[in-house]
Amino acid sequence: MNESATSAAGDAVTTQFLHLIDSTVWEVERVRAEIASSGQYPGELSSADLTISNLAILKRLVLTDKLPRPSRGQVSNRASLNISRQMGDWTDDDKLREASYAVEDYYRQSM
Second label for 28, Cα 20 to 30 Å away, from 13, 18, 55, 58? Predict the structure, then answer.
């Protein structure tokens, strides 16, 4: 594979990962809105806000190429971002969990 093909593949991998992060943010925002409208569990609002903030930090690390990547040997391919674990502490929403698992899996397998 030549250098430009490698660069393009890297860009596609990064683009997909960013898409998965954005999708997870949308799911967090959806769950946050449901929590806010129900008036129940106000502590979960701050947990949702923290999750959105953490995902923004993750996205910034990806965009600046500062996130250690398993594919580069910078971390183990068993490394975790702990996104789904953190979300599991405050929500049991299936769509949100699926989105967080997709980010975690993609990180380990493709990044």
Answer: 13
